[in-house]
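Handoff note, outgoing to incoming analyst
You'll be picking up this chain. Sequence as last confirmed:
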Amino acid sequence: QLQLVESGGGLVQPGGSLRLSCTASSATLRSYPIAWFRQAPGKEREFVAAINWSGGRTYYTDSVKGRFTISRDNAENTVYLHMNSLKPEDTAVYFCNAALELDQIGTRYWGQGTQVTVSS
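Most recent structure output, in case you need it:
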């Protein structure tokens, strides 16, 4: 059983930056494609970004392209979501997801989430 742990959320002003981290306890993330999802109050969970096992392929939802960057450090067993130029509409709980295959993103393993609030 893969247990994912997110960290790095917080309160930030519009235009600010945050870096979210996703790691696993007692297991390696190395072979898993990893994605970030988010869920705002009253809305469904939505895909944000994904990265394949090697880090060579990345995918983003249109609303975050050019502002967010997903990366991974397999030596550190961590996947990051670098978020720049944050907007109030980015406010949500952000979840890390590990799937068995890249085309199965959104299934299998989830973290508990970390809150990101963008507000002045």
